Amino acid sequence: MKNSGFALTVWFGMTLSALGGAAEAGEVDTFESTRQAVEREQDMEGEPGDARLLGVPMDLARFQALAVQSDQAGRCVGAISYDQSQQELAYALSMDLITLEVYYWGLANGYYPVVNRYNIISAVCMQRATP
After folding, report:
1. Which of 15, 27, 42, 106, by CA, is between 20 and 30 Å from 60?
2. Model confidence pTM above 0.90
């Protein structure tokens, strides 16, 4: 009975490995491959030298330009409420991702930053109708 539990565990582990447990096909999943995957994802979010990666708050001109780009690229598919928009703006301001000017402009015009898990603004979207 004990052996069947062990065999089941081994089978389950082998099944998970076969289904894509490794980072890439044929690649051993190591810390190095995980680190490289994270770096690739970060590179997709912003280019080296981008103000978002240098810790410089985004100014109004860049925020407005990103709003147009995000809209044209179709990145903003699900608008959020006015309250959620205010929270996103407040978070971005508290993390020094945007300037105070951007914060007030976003409140007045209904735009908010989409901040990813690396605290990088990946898009600027428009909120739903005000309450």
Report:
1. 42
2. no
φ and ψ at residue 115, rounded to 5 degrees: -100, 125
pLDDT digits (tens, 9 = 90+) for 14-37: 555 555 544 455 555 566 666 666
> Other C-beta atoms within 10 Å of 95: how many?
13
CA proximity to 110, closest of 61, 69, 63: 63
Taking the C-alpha atoms of residue 119 and residue 73, their distance in angstroms, rounded to an integer, is: 21
DSSP per residue, the chain: -HHHHHHHHHHHHHHHIIIIISSSTT----HHHHHHHHHHHHHHH--TT-HHHHTPPBPHHHHHHHHHHHHHHT---S---HHHHHHHHHHHHHTTSB-HHHHHHHHHHTEEEEE-TTS-EEEEEE-----
